[in-house]
Write a structure and sequence with these properties.
Helix content: 40-55%
Number of helices: 12
Mean pLDDT: 85
Shape: globular
Strand content: 5-15%
CATH topology: Rossmann fold
Distance between the termini: 42 Å
Radius of gyration: 19 Å
Largest sheet: 5 strands, parallel
Strand order of the largest sheet: 3-2-1-4-5
Low-confidence stretches: 169-187
CATH architecture: 3-Layer(aba) Sandwich
């Protein structure tokens, strides 16, 4: 597709990591302006390395416009977690410990508001089939989010959802045997025919290796979000020890259908009332 035929703008939910950077590269071939939205909770606002991949994309796609905005969602996550708390506790029991899912929902709410304010109709996310026990990674919950966006006239895309995921390697393993932080191309065990996000970026010349995941470089170039210790205990030690994964997904889908319904009301109030709405105070970056 030539630059003259590109569509206008696209939002990328951007962590700075391999998957979201790959999605940005894919969307840069279709859209002339890419809006990176990076979300954080608490005090960790700046990750110096996150600009590295953005600069690499700017160099690779010189005719595109790239805009980056960092947004705090601390207040929004707290509201999603505790609004109508006892009603949710009575209906969903331990599933209300789904902080990682509520964090993801806060990103989607913020992205929808950003799109409405900037007249953008496409949002893309770097979800793969890793961490499938997380609500935001479940197929059924993703469909709930797609309908959420669709209700406001926005298309929610997952371009690398079914791409191959390289074998997981922990940072400490990389550090012990691999001082430079990643394997050299000849040391890779995966077939060169495998379509992974890292390989795609390597072939574009954006990454130095087809798989930097788990490396020191990977640690430095993206936001880390770890609100899932209690969630993992609930998911693996309690729920999935006694019930099948399909049942877990079904219950989680019901939970997020209700949370998304609440979120729709929040956004509609914001569109109608602006600064007088409940959501306006939750969007304050303070």
């Amino acid at each position: 597709m030539s630059s003259g035929s590109k569509k206008d703008s696209c939002v990328i939910l951007y962590s700075g990591g391999t998957d979201s950077t790959c999605v940005a590269a894919l969307m840069a071939k279709e859209f002339s302006c890419i809006h990176f939205l990076t979300f954080y909770q608490g005090c960790k606002k700046n990750v110096p390395g996150i600009s590295g991949n953005i600069n690499a994309l700017k160099n690779k796609f010189a005719h595109n416009i790239f805009l980056h905005k960092t947004i705090q969602t601390t207040k929004l996550v707290k509201f999603i977690s505790y609004d109508n708390y006892f009603r949710y506790l009575f209906r969903f029991k331990l599933l209300i410990l789904s902080t990682c899912g509520f964090t993801t929902l806060s990103w989607h709410i913020r992205a929808i508001v950003y799109c409405l304010e900037n007249n953008i109709a496409t949002v893309a996310d770097g979800l793969t089939r890793e961490l499938m026990h997380f609500p935001g990674h479940m197929d059924e919950v993703i469909e709930v989010f797609k309908k959420f966006y669709g209700g406001f006239g926005i298309q929610y895309l997952n371009p690398v959802r079914d791409w191959t995921v390289p074998p997981d390697k922990q940072f400490i393993d990389r550090l012990i045997i691999d001082q430079h932080g990643y394997l050299f191309p000849g040391e890779e065990s995966m077939s060169s025919k495998e379509r992974t996000t890292g390989r795609y970026l390597y072939e574009l010349g954006i990454l130095p290796n087809p798989n930097v995941k788990g490396s020191l470089m990977d640690q430095k170039m993206q936001y880390d979000c770890y609100p899932f210790v209690l969630y993992n205990i609930m998911a693996f030690w309690i729920y999935l020890s006694f019930r099948p994964y399909e049942n877990f997904c079904m219950k989680m889908t019901y939970l997020f259908q209700d949370k998304v319904a609440d979120a729709c009301i929040l956004i509609e109030e914001y569109v109608a009332n602006g600064q007088r709405s409940r959501l306006n105070k939750l969007l304050e970056d303070k």
